[in-house]
């Protein structure tokens, strides 16, 4: 497994991978296929990913097998943390969001998710961040358990527009030791 910085030239490959992992994580039986397709068509397109990859506030990491087959990715984004986050980490430059972190279903439960998360946390720490935060769907029990094992703690919630449906996500944070 290799993890590398993704570039704009990875947009098409990343769009395919993001659509696959979104359907695997949130499709039936969790949500109707039409709802997931609606979200994918509105949020995971090559032009959207090209813009996100070019955005200096975003950092993408692409995970591949030794043969180059992509199996996952992460997106970190620098912006203002939620008000519910402890004040010490809301100060400018103190926290970064792990906005997306996904592996294809065939590779979940084999330790690659932990390696990708560790890579993101290490990168954030080296960049001088004191904490990372993320949002996770309240009904994604597997992800919630994973984040708990990784040392994340819940500090609030927000609503996320998933296609035409409004869903609740929990905010989680993890302090980094700098």
From TrEMBL:
Pfam family, one: Acetyltransf_1
Spans through the membrane: none
SUPFAM superfamilies: Acyl-CoA N-acyltransferases (Nat)
Residue ranges annotated for the N-acetyltransferase domain, each copy included: 1-177
Record bears the keyword Secreted: no
Keyword Acyltransferase on entry: yes
Any one GO molecular-function label of the UniProt entry: acyltransferase activity, transferring groups other than amino-acyl groups
Keywords, in A-Z order: Acyltransferase, Transferase
Gene3D superfamilies, alphabetized: 3.40.630.30
PANTHER family: AMINOALKYLPHOSPHONATE N-ACETYLTRANSFERASE-RELATED-RELATED
Protein name: GNAT family N-acetyltransferase
